[in-house]
Amino acid sequence: MTYRTTVGWSLITSGIVTLLLKALPGDSLWWGIGLLLLGIAIFTVRR
């Protein structure tokens, strides 16, 4: 059950991030890298 919830949240989050990258000014590559690093940081802190 946890796996399914994780996949669901992952898909929802990636959709939201994609929409944000379209809306944010500047190069979306740098926003993507920044958000990826932020996600990894949050993931490692929560463990």
Note down, in words, how this protein is organized:
The chain has 47 residues and is an all-alpha fold. 87% of the residues lie in helices and 0% in strands. The chain is flat. The longest helix is centred in the N-terminal third of the chain and has 22 residues, at 2-23. Keywords: Membrane, Transmembrane, Transmembrane helix. The chain crosses the membrane at residues 7-23, 29-45.
Task: Itemize the secondary structure elements and their pairings.
Blueprint: H1 2-23, H2 28-46
Keywords: Membrane, Transmembrane, Transmembrane helix
Transmembrane segments: 7-23, 29-45
Count of DSSP helices? 2
User: What is the N-to-C order of secondary-structure elements (H for helix, E for strand)?
Assistant: HH
Query: Structural class of the helices, strands and pairings?
Result: mainly alpha
What is the 3D form? flat
C-alpha-based Rg, rounded: 12 Å
Keywords: Membrane, Transmembrane, Transmembrane helix
Transmembrane segments: 7-23, 29-45
List keywords for this structure.
flat; mainly alpha
Compact overview of the structure:
The chain has helices at 2-23, 28-46. It is mainly α and 47 residues long.
